[in-house]
User: Fold this.
Amino acid sequence: MKQTFRLVHAEARRRAVASVDNAPDGFMVTVSEPTRSGEQNALLHVLLTEIAADHEWAGKKRDVEIWKRLLVASWLRARGESIEILPALDGHGVDVVFRRTSSLTKAECAELIDFIEAWRAM
Assistant:
């Protein structure tokens, strides 16, 4: 089933129609908000690197990846999204499952960066 979308620019409309018309059978064309930019990703990692260098959590220094997980989980809870705590696949402990930063839209990444900067200022 084809759907028609109102696109602001004629070139964007032409490309969207061409993508749908030229897609092989069984393929899907998805139009979505752009994900985080390279500049946002770089800033996010600068902030996380600085936090990892300057802060301890639960009595010791944590690496950038741990800080990213902690801050993303906290941000998700602050905006009313849920995270899941699931039994580990190997039966030892639990794992926390939440959104990956690579899937964030530009607006969401900007919000996360603001959240991290506010957390640092506390």
